[in-house]
Specification:
- There is one protein chain.
- By secondary structure, this protein is mainly β.
- It folds into three domains: 111 residues, Immunoglobulin-like (Sandwich); 82 residues, Sandwich (Immunoglobulin-like); 130 residues, Immunoglobulin-like (Sandwich).
- The chain contains two helices and 29 strands.
- The protein has a six-stranded antiparallel beta sheet, with no helix packed on it. A five-stranded antiparallel beta sheet has the order 3-2-5-7-8, with no helix packed on it. The chain has a four-stranded mixed beta sheet with strand order 14-11-17-16, with no helix packed on it.
- The longest helix is centred in the last third of the chain and has 34 residues.
- It starts with a helix and ends with a helix.
Length: 432
């Protein structure tokens, strides 16, 4: 029995499709590698996702920014399908609870021989993943509002040695004899860390967990900033500029509200010691209305002369005239009996101010550009150009002489005019 032509055509088409599919699978088997791109995002707080293979081995990490989508490039080697797990690698904090969802990722071949990824929620996952069909992994982190009554404590590490100190140290925040927090300080974080969301009902201190040998650890503090200085044997003990360098603002006038004023501390050399929070030898502070602001504590670890300037920034507040003074703060640091001693001197616009302890900037306030109304008991002083009684004030000096001559000239011209009129009238009468 002969096979119909249409059946032969169908079998030929089937054979062609089978060969193509087999060729794709063979090509994949030959290359033994497939790559897929997976969109991953998070909400609430930044976090870090980690990709694990089937046996739990970490393959790669991906930093995520809240509200943005990142691409995870997944390379599969060997036969498909393959399974992976994607989850966060963050530890909960006082304010942030990180999503505990574990996403199962299965990479397989579609009908065209292309590697594709599918997503599921791993069994036992207790995270915040939404129900229903998943189109991409999304981690939903929970952020609690900050407690307005909470306090922050910063710890800074300083070294007095020849640069041969350890790469990192561990410090503990202590409260009532218990460890309330731990931080690792190193060059990557500028040897500084801030403990946040602390209860103001308790007292805190910081200690170094394992001080290095041949070093003496000195702990000092100013306000909510702790400074741990490790001094190597044979090096002079550093000196702290204590009390901290402050700046004062006074206002001449009666503004209706309190404006914010900005001030800048700038080192002559960016390599000079600076208070915590400085960048490239510059530290800023602000004062609202009248009062004082603080730049922070400067710790000197070597003898020398250190020079800084303090200036006010003109922020353009309406009605204010800003103080353009330039204060120079000079520290003379010397070594005495194995300890450093610091002497602070203040100069205003180049003039030494021996009785001044902090820079003082005085701004003037004039409402709408005019003088403020006088206060009770004060004397109103008005310049001549502004005095409304000037028109009634008798003229004096050269001004009075000029007016007298003009008056006499006017009378003479008037008399001459009357005389000419009289003569003309007499002539007309004689002619008649």
């Amino acid at each position: 029995m002969k096979m119909p032509r249409i059946a032969k055509a169908a079998m030929g088409l089937f054979a062609l499709i089978f060969c193509l599919l087999l060729g794709n699978m063979t090509a994949f088997a030959a290359s033994n590698t497939a790559e897929v791109k997976i969109p991953v995002s998070c909400t609430g707080a930044d976090c870090t996702a980690v990709l694990l293979n089937a046996d739990g081995t970490e393959m790669q990490r991906l930093s995520l920014t809240a509200g943005q989508t990142a691409q995870l490039t997944l390379t599969c080697k060997g036969a498909l399908p393959q399974s992976f797990t994607l989850q966060l690698n963050n530890t909960d904090t006082n304010r942030v609870t990180y999503d505990k969802t574990a996403y199962g990722i299965r990479v397989s071949l579609d009908a065209g021989g292309n590697a594709v990824a599918g997503y599921t929620i791993e069994a036992g996952s207790t995270g915040n993943a939404p129900s229903g069909k998943l189109t991409e992994p999304v981690f939903h982190n929970t952020v609690r509002p900050a407690d307005p009554s909470s306090i922050h404590i910063t710890v800074n590490k300083l070294w007095v040695d020849d640069g041969d100190h350890p790469d990192s140290v561990t410090v503990n925040l202590m409260c009532a004899g218990n460890i309330a927090g731990t931080a690792v300080l190193n060059e990557g974080n500028g040897w500084s860390h801030t403990f946040t969301e602390l209860s103001p009902a308790y007292s805190y201190t910081v200690v170094e967990a394992d001080p290095p040998e041949n070093y003496t650890a000195l702990v000092a503090w100013q306000g909510d900033v702790f400074i741990i200085t490790n001094v190597k044997e044979g090096k002079p003990v550093p000196v702290l500029d204590n009390p901290a360098l402050k700046v004062s603002k006074t206002i001449d006038g009666q503004p209706q509200g309190n404006a914010a004023f900005a001030f800048v501390l700038r080192a002559k050399d960016p390599a000079y010691p600076m208070p915590a929070g400085s960048q490239n030898g510059v530290k800023e502070t602000s004062i609202t209305g009248r009062g004082e602001g603080e730049f922070g504590v400067i710790t000197f670890t070597k003898p020398g002369v250190y020079t800084y300037t303090v200036t006010e920034t003109d922020t353009g507040e309406k009605g204010y005239t800003y103080d353009g003074s330039v204060y120079t703060i000079q520290y003379a640091v010397t070594e005495r009996n194995g300890r450093l001693v610091s002497v602070r001197s203040i100069f205003k616009d180049g003039k030494r101010m021996p009785d001044m302890t902090i820079p003082v900037f005085q701004n003037k306030y004039r409402q709408d550009g005019t003088e403020n109304p006088p206060q009770a008991g004060s004397t109103l002083t008005v310049s001549k150009a502004e005095n409304p009684q000037d028109a009634a004030t008798p003229p004096t000096g050269d001004e009075s002489h000029a007016r007298l001559w003009l008056s006499l000239m006017f009378l003479a011209l008037a008399g001459l005019g009357l005389t000419l009129i009289a003569l003309a009238a007499g002539k007309r009468k004689a002619a008649k």
